[in-house]
């Protein structure tokens, strides 16, 4: 029996300038779909996605303008999923991590691409208008460290559990800065990474946005998914998506750790990271039990060689999809 | 000022755009000259033209939905960047015989509808060149032959109603011409299983501006899907509007467009293809004159694609090769 294929869609923080650049320059189908997305993003924002993403030459600038990162992530993940599907690789499950749940909803046909982009943009506008400045910090270490440093963590909350030694916290921007200074500055040897996100997703900080978000996202039509969907917020397969689920996705912490453990314990899977950074496939690597027959693959990463990475994934899977 | 009602409500919203329509009427201070609606939206157009009252409209839409849900399972997909001629040629050349063209939305946007397995199989053929395949999340194969039995049942249901003469001309999806009062039942019933000739309907309306005044279109209801489509529909300058002939039967415009495209196909392509097939069997080793590919070997006979292109498929390659760009290598 062949293993089910799981497309994993990553969330805010996995984006960067120039993501997908090599494919955009050399893969005509990727370029075609990106240009298609670009036209829709232009309709929704008045700005060009591809001009922003591929315009400059600096890969290291922080790409954190949510008005573009939101539709950019959705677009790039949609295009990567399309590329794999066009290569004959069809997913058995779509697994979304945070904003990645929006991309998985579009790939599942819950929302059309156009609606998905519009929702991503309207949500970003809402955040810029109504949310206080926040931040997110990825911490390399066991979540038990919170007990060792209780005072440092009081004003931040856990927003994501990725694997045993990697979790994310969210809070007001100044609190996140303080926490990072504390963890890295006092000789604890704790490695942290500030995410390119200026909002405290998955935390009480964004709670006041709830009525606005529900009203905005409630005006969309949600169809039943064509492909089974797994939510990393719910930790399991979900029957469908509506505005209430999307609110939970934004407000509640993400438990990628238990979601993958549970799934992998039920069956061996092929996990494919459909995000631009390969962060989810890395997390899966740490989550799979020893002697597993599950495998994990990435489609893009920050270190170039996009075409080679993609081709490796495709050739790895051709033959396993019949 | 002329304006058009063209609402495309979701199944949930059913006849709600009616409210926006009355608001629009108030603002404009006069009735539109024409109304049209896309698929289910045609009911809003008929309502605006006082063909039936709101309550009757709801009954019709409800019954229509129930009958459509009873039809055999099917799927739909949007094809972008392919003309109707391209789409029909690809369906024919790849033996996708159980798929119909459901919507002819713009010259570059066609929706196909039919048996689920074939719609899925069709994907591979619509991802060449600039063509894009978008699966749609409909619960059935609307506007396809799978809807025939539902269409017939719906006709019997419609016969139980009396419809009023239309107060405003309504452009029908299935004819791209104004509804005839005596054919409301037939036209509404046919719409379930026939193509939505939206592009032709808009071009027909555009051709009415011969008094020098441009036709103005206004979308009523949720979203602006139809307004966006409008941008991609060019005026058909060859279209002659003769309103006196409106009541006479004539071939549907889509059929005429198809005819014109068929006539345009140069016969030379067929000759090139037959000449190739007569000379070179499947498995012939060839070389591509445009790009450097290793050891090409044909895996199909040469075929005519899109009605004008001589094409052939190679082993180990997904897309088609232009027959003019390959030459047999000397064995």
From TrEMBL, chain A:
Keyword Signal among UniProt keywords: no
InterPro entries: Ac_transferase_dom_sf, Acyl_transferase_dom, Acyl_Trfase/lysoPLipase, Polyketide_Synthase
PANTHER family: POLYKETIDE SYNTHASE 37, POLYKETIDE SYNTHASE 44-RELATED
Source organism, top-level taxon: Bacteria
Keywords: Acyltransferase, Transferase
SMART domains the UniProt entry points to: PKS_AT
Protein name (record): Acyltransferase domain-containing protein
Listed transmembrane segments: none
Domain spans labelled Malonyl-CoA:ACP transacylase (MAT): 8-302
One function term, GO molecular function aspect: acyltransferase activity
TrEMBL record, chain B:
GO annotation, cellular component aspect: cytosol
Superkingdom of this protein's organism: Bacteria
Residue ranges of domain Malonyl-CoA:ACP transacylase (MAT) in the record: 4-280
Keywords, in A-Z order: Acyltransferase, Transferase
GO terms classed as biological process: fatty acid biosynthetic process
A Pfam family recorded for this sequence: Acyl_transf_1
InterPro entries linked to this entry: Ac_transferase_dom_sf, Acyl_transferase_dom, Acyl_Trfase/lysoPLipase, Mal-CoA-ACP_Trans/PKS_FabD, Malonyl_transacylase_ACP-bd
Key word Nuclease present: no
GO terms assigned for molecular function: [acyl-carrier-protein] S-malonyltransferase activity
Enzyme class: transferase
SUPFAM superfamilies: FabD/lysophospholipase-like, Probable ACP-binding domain of malonyl-CoA ACP transacylase
EC nos: 2.3.1.39
Gene3D superfamilies xref list: Malonyl-Coenzyme A Acyl Carrier Protein, domain 2 (3.40.366.10)
Tagged with keyword Nuclease: no
Catalytic activity: holo-[ACP] + malonyl-CoA = malonyl-[ACP] + CoA
Protein's name in the database: [acyl-carrier-protein] S-malonyltransferase
Taxonomic lineage from the root: Bacteria, Pseudomonadati, Pseudomonadota, Alphaproteobacteria, Hyphomicrobiales
């Amino acid at each position: 029996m062949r293993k089910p294929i799981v497309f994993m869609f990553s969330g805010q923080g996995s984006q960067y300038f120039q993501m997908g650049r090599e494919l955009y320059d050399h893969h005509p189908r990727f370029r075609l779909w990106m240009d298609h997305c670009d036209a829709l993003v232009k309709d929704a924002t008045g700005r060009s996605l591809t001009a922003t993403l591929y315009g400059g030459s600096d890969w290291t600038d922080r790409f954190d303008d949510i008005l573009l990162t939101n539709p950019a992530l959705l677009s790039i993940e949609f295009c990567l999923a399309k590329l794999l599907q066009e290569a004959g690789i069809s997913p058995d499950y779509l697994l979304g991590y945070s904003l990645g749940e929006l991309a998985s909803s579009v790939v599942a046909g819950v929302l059309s691409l156009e609606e998905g982009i519009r929702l991503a943009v309207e949500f970003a506008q809402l955040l810029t208008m109504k949310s206080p400045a926040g931040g997110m910090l990825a911490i390399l270490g066991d979540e038990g460290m919170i007990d060792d440093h209780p005072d440092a963590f009081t004003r931040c909350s856990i927003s994501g559990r990725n694997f045993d030694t990697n979790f994310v916290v969210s809070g007001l921007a100044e609190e996140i800065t303080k926490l990072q200074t504390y963890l890295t500055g006092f000789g604890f040897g704790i490695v942290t990474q500030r995410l390119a996100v200026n909002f405290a997703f998955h935390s009480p900080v964004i709670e006041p946005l709830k009525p606005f978000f529900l009203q905005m996202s409630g005006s969309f039509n949600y169809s039943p998914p064509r492909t089974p969907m797994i939510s990393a917020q719910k930790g399991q397969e979900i029957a469908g998506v509506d505005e209430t689920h999307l609110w939970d996705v934004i407000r509640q912490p993400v438990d990628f750790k238990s979601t993958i453990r549970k799934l992998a314990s039920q069956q061996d899977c092929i996990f494919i990271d459909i995000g631009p950074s390969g962060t989810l496939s890395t997390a899966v690597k740490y989550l799979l039990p020893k002697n597993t027959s599950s495998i994990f693959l990435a489609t893009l990463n920050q270190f170039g060689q996009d075409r080679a990475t993609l081709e490796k994934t495709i050739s790895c899977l051709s033959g396993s999809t019949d | 000022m002329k304006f058009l009602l063209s609402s495309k409500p979701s199944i949930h919203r059913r006849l709600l755009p009616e409210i926006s329509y009355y608001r629009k009427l108030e603002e404009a201070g006069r009735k539109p000259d024409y109304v049209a609606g896309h698929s289910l939206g045609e009911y809003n157009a008929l309502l605006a033209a006082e063909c039936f009252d709101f309550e009757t409209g709801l009954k019709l839409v409800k019954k229509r939905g129930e009958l459509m849900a009873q039809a055999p399972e099917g799927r739909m997909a949007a094809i972008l960047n392919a003309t109707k001629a391209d789409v029909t040629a690809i369906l024919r050349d790849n033996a996708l015989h159980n798929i119909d063209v459901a919507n002819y939305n713009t010259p570059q946007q066609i929706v196909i509808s039919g048996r689920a397995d074939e719609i899925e199989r069709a994907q591979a053929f619509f991802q060449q060149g600039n063509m894009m395949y978008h699966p749609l999340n409909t619960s059935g194969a609307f506007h396809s032959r799978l809807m025939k039995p539902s269409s017939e049942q719906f006709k019997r249901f419609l016969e139980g109603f009396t419809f009023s003469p239309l107060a405003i001309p309504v452009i029908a999806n299935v004819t791209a011409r104004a509804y005839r009062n005596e054919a409301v039942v037939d036209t509404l019933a046919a719409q379930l299983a026939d193509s939505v000739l939206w592009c032709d309907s808009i071009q027909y309306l555009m051709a009415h501006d011969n008094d020098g005044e441009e036709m103005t279109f206004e979308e009523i209801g949720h979203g602006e899907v139809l307004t966006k489509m409008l941008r991609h529909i060019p005026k058909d300058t060859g279209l002659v509007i003769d309103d006196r002939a409106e009541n006479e039967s004539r071939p549907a415009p889509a059929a005429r467009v198809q005819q014109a495209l068929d006539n345009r196909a140069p016969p030379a392509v067929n000759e090139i293809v037959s000449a190739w097939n007569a000379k070179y069997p499947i498995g012939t080793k060839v070389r591509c004159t445009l790009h450097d590919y290793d050891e090409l070997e044909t895996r199909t006979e040469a075929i005519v694609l899109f009605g004008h292109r001589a094409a052939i498929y190679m082993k180990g390659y997904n897309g088609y090769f232009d027959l003019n760009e390959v030459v047999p290598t000397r064995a």
